[in-house]
Amino acid sequence: MEPFLSQNYANPSSIYRMAQAARSAVDAARDTIVGCLGARSDEMIFTSGGTESNNAAIKGTALARQMAGRHVVTSAIEHHAVLYPMQELQERFHFDVAIVPVSSSGVVDPTWLQQTLRPETVLISCMWANNEIGTVQPVEEIGKLARDLGVPFHVDAVQVAGALTIDLRHAPIDLMSISAHKFYGPKGIGALYVRRGTPWWPLLVGGRQERNRRAGTENVAGIVGMAEALRLACLDRETAQAHACALRDCLIAEVMRRIPNTHVNGDLERRLPNNANFTFDGVQGESLLVALDLAGIMASSGSACTSGSTEPSHVLTAIGLSDDEARGSLRLTVGRESTMEEMVRTVDVLVHLVERQRLTASKTQRATA
Ligand SMILES: *Cc1c(COP(=O)(O)O)cnc(C)c1O
């Protein structure tokens, strides 16, 4: 990335030779990315990240097809970058939004989704994997339903790109969002896959960049960084998966063995390799986070995007947790550089912190009784 921040500062749309070098770097990055995902280079549009990709896909397709109908379908556990554009379609453009519930293990049942489909459905959007509880959705089956009806299918694959295998040559997916910082790339850069022939209106208009599909001077350094990050992630995906699974499984097993009245949220089989999500009865997730941070352990309760809000996670309430249970939840994810020693220490710290919090809670209860 560094040369494109310091030495080659040219705008890739300019004529001079330095600009042509920047253009070549953007083209090469696009080729790398489509190569990793099984797409064609005219099907990948660079954006500012997952949020923009989701907004562009949902509003772009729904508004382009509104003459065919005003009904769209999504799941209850989508990221807010899907749910809020959907809400906007409903409130500002008079669409009907069907929100498909999920099972108690956080998986979308394609037959439930099928029941919501109507002749006037113009878009289905379902995430590939959930960012809070890590559940992996049956996007293949959902995509087949969509394809049978000729309805465009958008997939928020932000949690999956780099982590699991994606092959768009065979997946029945028409639009797909990815974001670089979820696979160790830079922040503020992402991409939207738009299959050839998918009806779509650009969210941003202005310059002629990205074949008139997303106006604005390209973030050259970001694009170059994203391509390299995805290339590296795909290169050692299998090793990374095995590493993450081993650590995560140990973390879950030890937490369940040593901390009573604990539950794992989300399906244990259909799950991202790096995700663990727990509910500790009688514990406040937020205070646990602060105490963990003091111990040098970075964790989160719901999604990083909504922390600071006192609302319980919509994902955890959608799988049937009460508001209190949702507030007593903790998400731990492991990374490339995480070690088994860190898992052991994390469990030790958690055992101590949960015990202390429960003790304090029961004392307060007794005092007020
Ligand atoms: C992080 C995330 C997003 C948002 O991506 P940004 O690049 O942060 O805008 C969208 N969907 C999912 C599933 C995510 O995990």
What does this structure look like?
Helix content is 43%, strand content 13%. It contains 12 helices and 10 strands. By secondary structure, it is α/β, with parallel strands linked by helices. The termini are far apart. Helix 1 packs parallel to helix 7 (220-235). It has a 7-stranded mixed beta sheet, with helices on both faces. It has a 3-stranded antiparallel beta sheet with strand order 8-9-10. The mean pLDDT is 96. The relative contact order is 0.13. It has helices at residues 17-37, 50-64, 80-93, 110-116, 139-149, 209-212, 220-235, 237-258, 285-294, 314-318, 323-327, 340-368; strands spanning 44-47, 71-75, 96-100, 121-125, 153-156, 175-179, 190-194, 262-264, 275-280, 329-333. It folds into 2 domains: 3-235, 3-Layer(aba) Sandwich (Aspartate Aminotransferase, domain 2); 237-368, Aspartate Aminotransferase, domain 1 (Alpha-Beta Complex). Strand 2 (71-75), helix 3 (80-93) and strand 3 form a beta-alpha-beta unit. Pyridoxal-5'-phosphate binds at residues 49-51, 54, 79, 81, 127, 131, 156, 158-159, 179, 182, 190.
